[in-house]
Amino acid sequence: MNALHRMAEPTALLRFASPEFDLLEGLVFRRYPRKEWASFARFGWRETPEGLVVTLAALDEPAEGDLDDGVADVKITAAYSRRIALAAERHALGVGIIHSHPEGAPPRPSSIDDEMDRYYAEYFADFAPGRPYVSIIMSELAGDTGKEIAVSGRIFHGGVWRQATRVAAARRPDVVAWPRGERPPAPPIPPERVARLTSAFGKEAYQRLQRATVALIGAGGTGSAAIPILARAGVGRLIVIDSDHASESNLERLHGSVPQDAADAVPKVTIARRHVAGMSPDVIVETWIGRLPQPEIIDAVIQADVLMGCTDQHTSRLAVSDIARRYAMPALDIGGLIEGANGVVTGQIVQLVRFLPEDPCPQCRGMINPTRFRQEMMSTDEREAAKAEAEAAVARGERPDPIAGAIPQIDTVGYITTTAGTLAAGFVIGWLTGRFDPKFERLQLDLVAECLGAVDRPQRRKDDCVCGRVRGFADQAADTAPFQPPVHWEPARKIVAEKV
Asked: Could you tell me which PANTHER family the record lists for this protein (predicted)?
């Protein structure tokens, strides 16, 4: 093993959004099956306790003559390298190269690749100091779960080489990490308890779920319904985030809870972990007290393949969409409510909103109410003061400021949150297995309307919105977060496994 490989002890996660990956795949395999091709690229990144997260932000495609088309491997001209280096002085992203290997060849770095990476890691450091140099190799191979795009990667950052031990390509479970270019361990044989799933989707579906990670923001009514669906299907790791605890008022819709949980004020994430342990003890459940966009929670959720927003709050919806855009990960936001008055129910609404990195943000879609947003950001004392101010205004015969009031209670019940959560979990399973891709952007169902009142509401991005400009930029986006966590929020903390 050469020195470059021996140094590669720290790890990294490579993330790709669909538009960039589709373009990349067509480009680097343009001379397949016998010849290689390549492109320089730009990358966002974030340091987390689990390792470096690197996101493909843009391709700097070769122009005519930048690569030698007369040779089978990749030969890069000095002019192409120089152009990329000078461009790096004008942007804040990392720089790297992505190339293919021929048919049947694993993405294992050759001695020529080693030499190239040593040279470029030093060369680009002069033009992009302090930024990562990224080298990625892609191959089309027959894998254990069918045809795969095998990806190896190594990143030079902070004076050390890091191996890409995981790859997350949005809605592409056929894209698999081959650390150091070596085939990953064989996937497990599906157990009998998932026989119905494998009968419908194939054993490869279960194996893809086994290596997948799903992060859920919210472990209440909607999240607690989605969690057991994902766990029973075989998702290998769940990251569950919630800042609340069980209370009498939410036991009706909190799956896995018992009355004593409300009496003991047990955190909802603890109930979720206990629930999963009782049905699927092999599933890894990581639990956090916290909210987006707290830095520790960002570090946790960007490790996932899919992000689910299960709070039905405007603040959370805005943060979930921002994470999807900046860190190149697909997300699904779930909500529900009951419409009506005076005891007469006129609508029972379930809403599922797709937030792919390339989708319009909730502000473009008109989904963020400024009044609700400001109310959700209030502290408990601020809410009480605002409520008193509103009552005083009414007593004076005045119309109170709409901000001066308590946050309205989400008007929903257990079977609506359960319907929403299970539907969303099913669609996420489709993404993770590659067996189906939900064809909606903003799906609304009315459970008491004819034919469920199903409508899709596709919406366009506003031309001046930043969400169309910095996909995959990670922490290097100019707008690092849609808002800052208020000081009154409880500090984020990881809850270690314990007997409950």
From this structure: TRNA THREONYLCARBAMOYLADENOSINE DEHYDRATASE
Question: Distance between CA atoms of 296 and 319, rounded to whole angstroms?
Answer: 14
CATH code for the domain defined by 192-368+412-495: 3.40.50.720
Look at residue 144 in the predicted model and tell me its pLDDT.
Answer: 61
Residue 220 contacts residue 254 (beta carbons within 8 Å): yes
How far is CA 408 from each of CA 48, 292, 309, 383, 402, rounded to the nearest angstrom?
36, 21, 19, 11, 11
Q: Longest Cα pair distance anywhere in the chain, in angstroms?
A: 85
Residue among 276, 355, 376 at smallest CA distance from 309? 355
pTM, two decimal places: 0.93
Are 3-181 and 192-368+412-495 in the same CATH fold? no
SS (H, E, C) 75-86: CECHHHHHHHHH
| Pairing relationship of beta strands 306-309 and 331-341 according to DSSP bridges | parallel
Neighbours of 282 (CB within 10 A): 12
Does domain 3-181 fall under CATH 3.40.140.10? My reply is: yes
The answer to whether the beta carbons of residues 465 and 321 sit under 8 Å apart is no
Length of the chain equals 500
Domain residue extents for the chain: 3-181, 192-368+412-495
The three state secondary structure string of 177-212 is ECHHHCCCCCCCCCCHHHHHHHHHHCHHHHHHHHCC
Beta strands in 342-375 (DSSP E): 344-355
| CA gap 120, 95 in Å, rounded | 9
Residues 371-390 pLDDT 10s: 999 999 999 898 888 888 88
